[in-house]
Specification:
The chain has 495 residues and is of the alpha/beta class. It has 19 helices and 14 strands.
């Protein structure tokens, strides 16, 4: 059992203590070469035939023996590339050392002390598992399953009643956070830990952004998000839902009521299908279909009926995988994805692609829709496609897509779900929100401290960066919270 000196309560102080212990841990490291003797084992999956009948999570967590064995495969690099690759600076080496030694309680406590929203980060990895891709074992053996071990530690901590580090005393200052997705929740968590009274405002019915209102249950357990919201509420964070910026609340009122404001919402429209026939009956946005199958339905949205029908999903990202797997659970006769690139360059998470295949989804690669075909009643009957070929990488570092001159072919369809991603998040240009300076693309302009042109109004995430990896959104929220703390501390000292 380790402990810090009295008064040392922060995760980083705890981490320094553990790193001084690492020299003592390594001489007794019994599994330095376990990676050669122990195969990587991923968490067990529920059989596909069982999981397609519900929306519960696909994978099950490790048991203690497997978690310890898999953690022992880490060779404890002196300069770990996994840590360098992790955008959240997770103390991976120390976590794996403790887990391999069976010190699960200590490992979970370290994770809680050093990671913002650890239960969400471990189940929906904001780094895209860069840590595993950077593992030095890559190329020699399968990398250490870092995310799965982290998930085990989070679950272990919750089950054993571990508490999070104490928060700072109340400062008497009030802060508003607009947006309750990951960006807003991270900012609210960080600010409330620093002793600020935080109020989160959001236009949705339930806090949690797409995690609670858009992602299907097989991707993320909404109970995790709900538990985090409850923890924040117990800490004093208030949630004001069904509030639309520019309609129900104005920036001048927020600036008068609160000492600082953080703009961290990411409401954006789905990219539409722009080919002949896109307006036929039976063409729907894929994200709306997925939302309606969960708890994030929008009143008045048309609901596609897919039972017994041929469903064609256009696109190759995670939303496309969600739509395919949801359609199968809703009784679709066929669920087929048409994607203009190949499987190797598909944007979707590899695990989600594998899950979709296991559950019966079909794929047509190197094909691009050029029209939607309908009958005399205006209903979809097919998607007309043309073959593509891949060229040199474009500005996004993805291979350029070129249409081939081959004969076009039709893919039969009764329902078409469009999963072409989302447009940029935009600040509503109504009322005094229009005073916030934006660039030519509509993104909010911030300074080095993430403050807008309006003193005390900060912003971060997609509304500043445009479409961005989740890791950058999380980092923005944490850095903005620190900048807001510095700003408010300076104002206190100047009085």
């Amino acid at each position: 059992m380790w402990q810090t000196r009295a008064g040392e309560g922060t995760g980083r102080q705890l981490l320094r203590v553990l790193r001084t212990m690492n020299a003592r841990l390594r001489p007794d490291w019994h599994a330095k070469y376990a990676w050669r003797e122990v195969d990587r084992v991923d968490p067990p999956k529920r059989p596909a035939k069982n999981r397609v009948s519900d929306f519960r999570e696909t994978s099950q967590p490790y048991d203690e023996a497997t978690a310890r064995e898999q953690a022992s495969r880490c060779i404890q690099c002196p300069n770990p590339s996994c840590v360098a690759a992790c955008p959240l600076e997770t103390p991976i080496v120390e976590l794996l050392a403790l887990a391999a030694d069976g010190q699960f309680k200590e490992a979970a406590q370290l994770l809680f002390a050093t990671t913002t929203l650890p239960e969400i980060a471990s189940h929906v990895c904001p780094g895209g598992r860069r840590c595993e891709a950077a593992c030095v074992l890559e190329g020699r053996a399968e990398p250490v399953p870092i995310r799965s071990i982290t998930r085990f530690l989070v679950d272990y901590g919750w089950k054993h009643g571990l508490s999070e580090p104490p928060v700072a005393p109340l400062t008497g200052r009030r802060v508003a956070v607009i947006g309750s997705g990951i960006c807003g929740l991270v900012a609210a968590d960080a600010l409330s830990r620093r002793g600020y009274a935080v109020t989160v405002l959001d236009s949705r019915q339930k806090p949690g952004g797409r995690m609670m209102n858009g992602l299907p249950g097989f991707r993320v357990d909404t109970k995790l998000v709900g538990r985090r919201v409850e923890l924040l509420e117990r800490r004093g964070v208030r949630f004001r839902m069904n509030v639309v910026c520019g309609r129900d609340v104005h920036l001048r009122d927020l600036r008068r009521e609160f000492d600082a404001v953080f703009l961290g919402f990411n409401r954006s429209d789905a990219v539409p299908l722009e080919v002949p026939g896109a307006a036929l009956r039976g063409v729907f946005p894929a994200d709306a279909f997925v939302r309606q199958s969960g708890s994030g339905a929008t009143p008045g949205e048309p609901t596609p009926e897919v039972r017994g029908r041929r469903v064609v999903v256009l696109g190759g990202g995670d939303t496309a995988m969600d739509a395919l797997r949801t359609a199968i659970r809703r009784g679709a006769r066929e669920a087929l994805c048409v994607y203009r690139r190949d499987a190797a360059t598909m944007a979707a998470d590899r695990e989600e692609y594998a899950n979709a295949l296991e559950e019966g989804a079909q794929f047509v690669f190197l094909s691009q829709p050029v029209a939607v075909i309908g009958n005399s009643a205006g209903e979809v009957t097919a998607v007309r496609c043309r073959n593509t070929e891949l060229g040199d990488p474009d500005v996004s570092e993805q291979p350029e897509v070129k249409l081939r001159a081959d004969i076009e072919f039709d893919v039969p369809a009764d329902v078409v779900l469009v999963a072409y991603g989302f447009g940029p998040a935009r600040l509503p240009r109504v009322g005094d929100f229009a005073e916030v300076v934006v660039d030519e693309r509509g993104r909010i302009v911030v300074d080095a401290g993430q403050m807008t042109n309006l003193p005390g109004v900060f912003a971060g995430g997609s509304i500043v960066r445009g479409p961005a990896p989740l890791s950058e959104v999380v980092c923005d929220a944490r850095e903005a919270a620190a900048a807001m703390d510095r700003y408010l501390a300076a104002r206190r000292s100047n009085r």
